[in-house]
Design brief:
By secondary structure, this protein is an alpha/beta fold. The protein has 23 helices and twelve strands. Helix 20 packs antiparallel against helix 21.
Length: 474
């Protein structure tokens, strides 16, 4: 995959093709392989030794990881060849340095070793890739145009971020260059990172994998990097989520297939996940559902809606489940299913949403009988959702304020509600009230950190920023 001009140690030799050709050859290879040449200039050379560990102030393995796994052709010239290159590109004699050169032989960027850090190399390498115009592609806006560009490539990954997702900056700073993703990403023709306004309040980031111009795989939310690397491999080998959906539509129902399929659906946040999970659980006896840890894990991870058999069974036996899996975990899961049942009483007529009060009355009786916690609060949150669906910002603000004053509101939920107000409401009273929620919660974080000497308020800068967007510095 890579061409190495010069030698970077025994490990590099075992992994990479070694070629002692000239810079001209490396530039030619860069043009043929759609890469950038990284010329490493050393302060001294031990004769014609092929093993050197004094290239830079940090380990040579780190250098090869950053550069070679990031689609660079690495050239490490010696003797007169190195001197000629220094003269050609105006680099003073002596000292460490890296030159980034495109396939036309033109200097893209350079870095010296006088105040050298690994992070600086990563950022410079990322900038060189972008400026070369043919390695990785980055977009900060215009999601639609980004998808069009990705669809023109043989293979691509679009990482779709919400406007306030801090991970976006990490991608743009090149953090992926030194991760376990490198070996997978180098197989793609393009990587796009885009901030999408439509993701306000939604799970972020979203990873969209393309192959031959078609969307073939999807992952949603803060998944671990090896899951994304697996997504790359799946998208290139025909084992992506869309391929599995086709197999499911064609009738495949083996347990091995369904277990793999439900995990892919869960990672993608796909609604079909609930149906597939229930298929797997339908094979379990009541005793297995109550005692088998794998069955509970499947339910906890992938089931999102109430059914007529398993949900009542778990509600009735929640104390026994709590002994096995912890009361907090069990109650949290059952609460989520109750909320999904509550959302079932929302009805739409002539484009407007409303609560079916008769159905809600019956459901409330069932919740009381089951001793569900905080029923009134859950119903209040249902009415908040109804107002949101109708884009009734005034009512929405009044109801959220009532919920906020109760206390115990999840801060991520509050932030998402405030994002929704900021993106759609021009009512100054509504915007002011939302900004006050954020300022008060941010101040609570500051106070806690001040008293306890901690730094737990990681969300505080985002609360402050959104509050200013809503109503200025009040």
């Amino acid at each position: 995959m890579f061409l190495l001009t010069g030698i970077c140690g025994a490990e590099a030799q075992s992994r990479l093709h070694v070629d002692n050709s000239s810079l001209a050859s490396a530039i030619d290879q860069a043009g043929k392989r759609n890469k950038v040449v990284a010329v490493v200039l050393r302060e001294r050379v031990l004769g014609n030794s092929t093993l050197y560990d004094d290239i830079f102030p940090f380990q040579v393995d780190s250098l090869t990881t950053l550069l070679l796994n990031s689609r660079f052709i690495l050239s490490a010239p010696v003797g007169q060849t190195a001197n000629d290159i220094r003269g050609r590109y105006g680099v003073p004699a002596g000292g460490y340095g890296i030159l980034f050169i495109n396939s036309d032989g033109k200097l893209i960027d350079s870095i010296s070793g006088t105040s050298y850090t690994e992070e600086r190399l990563r950022i410079k390498a990322r900038e060189a890739l972008i400026q070369s115009g043919n390695i990785y592609f980055f977009e900060e806006s215009n999601y639609t145009e980004t998808l069009k560009s990705a669809a023109k490539l043989n293979s691509a990954l679009v990482v779709q971020f919400s406007p306030n997702d801090a991970n976006f900056k990490g991608i743009l700073n090149g953090n992926f260059l030194n991760s376990e993703l490198a070996s997978a990403l180098k197989k793609l023709d393009g990587l796009f990172a885009v901030q999408d306004e439509s993701l306000v309040g939604e799970a972020s980031p979203i990873y969209l994998f393309y192959n031959n111009g078609k969307l073939v795989h999807k992952i949603v939310g803060g998944v671990v990097w090896n899951c994304v690397a697996d997504g790359v491999e799946r998208s290139l080998s025909g084992r992506g989520l869309e391929a599995y959906k086709l197999r499911y539509a064609q009738g495949e129902r083996s347990r091995e297939f369904l277990e793999e399929f439900v995990e892919l659906l869960g990672n993608a946040g796909d609604e079909l996940c609930n149906e597939v999970a229930m298929l797997l659980l339908s094979e379990c006896s009541d005793d297995a559902l109550l005692r088998n840890r794998a069955a509970w894990h499947l339910y906890d991870e992938y089931v999102t809606k109430a059914d007529e058999r398993i949900f009542p069974l778990y509600v009735e036996n929640r104390n026994n489940l709590a002994v096995l899996y912890g009361s907090d975990k069990v109650n949290e899961k059952l609460d989520k299913i109750w909320r999904s049942k509550l959302h079932g009483v929302l009805v739409q007529n002539s484009g407007l949403w409303s609560v079916d009060e008769a159905s809600l009355k019956e459901l409330r009786k069932s919740m009381s009988k089951a001793k569900v916690r905080d029923i009134s609060t859950k119903i209040l949150e249902l009415r908040i959702e109804c107002a949101k669906r109708n884009s009734d910002y005034k009512l929405f603000s009044n109801l959220v304020n009532e919920r906020w004053e109760i206390g115990g509101l999840d801060l991520k939920q509050l932030y998402e509600w405030c994002e929704w107000i900021e993106s759609g409401s021009s009512d100054p009273d509504v915007r002011y009230r939302a900004s006050r929620w954020l300022y008060v919660e941010a101040e609570k974080m500051r106070s806690y950190d001040r008293i306890h000497g901690t730094n737990l308020g990681s969300m505080r800068p985002y609360f402050d920023h959104l509050a200013v967007k809503l109503y200025g510095d009040n």
